[in-house]
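Figure caption, in words: inputs first, then the predicted bound structure.
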Amino acid sequence: MLSNWFPVEWNSGLPTCSHLYPKPRFVGVNASDINYSAGRYDPSVKTPFDAGFEGVGEVVALGLSASAQYAVGQAVVYTAPGAFAEYVVVPAGMATPVPAATPEYLALPVSAATAYISLRELGGLQEGKKVLVTAAAGGTGQFAVQFAKKAKCHVIGTCSSDEKAAFLKSIGCDRPINYHSEPVGTVLAQEYPGGVDVVYESVGGAVFDEAVKALAVRGRLLVIGFISGYQTPTGLSPVTTKALPVSLLRKSASIQGFFLNHYLSEHRACMEQLVQMCASGDLVCQVDRGGLSAEGRFEGLESVFRAVDHMYLRKNTGKVVVELPRSVHSKL
Ligand code: NAP
Ligand code: X1H
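Bound structure (NAP present):
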């Protein structure tokens, strides 16, 4: 499969000057892949179009002005619409050099960057604050937990299994809650009667309602997503909180949305930090390659759909990634 915007210049051997041309070794799966594929993300993008947001791989060709920053053979992680492809064209500004094209780095450009930028810009994190992270053992949740711990906060994380809860413990989460064995609302009411100061919320629906209920006075809830709604025909969660204005007013609480694409000006500096933290082992970048899924590891573009299913069956721990074969023609 070649991207449908694969440039004619490539075929003539003349890459455009400010792009680079990586061959992906791994591509990343995001919850919003299904929103993008459903045409909700950008209604101006008409079918047929390629899906996928990100990859990690080695540069196989370069435009002239990109060659000041990158070299053929170099490993890069990048974001690019249509990333589920055998080759991609990436504007130089959307790629970051990494020490090797390993899947851990794939957790950085969307999942980790979302947690890093949103919590830094909007979270108001301070030592001792109580932070609730929903879907905490997933691609982006794992980073919200770690960044909140680095800010010396007390972190509560929700997840759906004891294995995920054990993973959350391992990355420093103070109070993992497996919602299949403990009702989240009850735990929060009993153990955090003063409420939680910050919520990193990405599930929506009833989980959003519980989180609003649990907010402390002057608490902040960051709307990162609402995955419980993405499989509905409209992609929207039912609005259940009719009492939202009064709930917020009574606690001087606030709710703010965050969409990574609106913070691209911060992305480059953020990526430099994140790559360094990941390379030095200062940040756990857990990836799920599907080894425990029914049909085994996600290998090849044809396994992207299994990887998406794995996530929507709530089976993943960490960032879901798909490995692509090395080119038979390339020595890379
Ligand atoms: P993920 O967390 O790796 O996987 C999704 C997880 O959500 C599942 O593992 C599951 O964890 C949990 N979940 C809870 N209810 C679910 C339901 N009804 N259906 C499916 N999963 C459910 O996925 P991700 O790609 O990192 O995305 C997580 C959230 O962050 C999404 O809402 C996504 O849209 C959002 N996001 C937002 C931005 C932004 O710019 N705002 C950027 C990236 C991601 P448990 O089994 O533990 O419940
Ligand atoms: C211009 O701002 C946006 C924001 C969100 C444009 C599109 C979206 C979008 O499609 C998303 C989205 C993007 C990223 C993400 O991690 C989660 C989501 S959820 C979502 C959406 C879902 C259903 C809709 O009806 C509208 C948007």
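DSSP finds ten helices and 13 strands in the chain.
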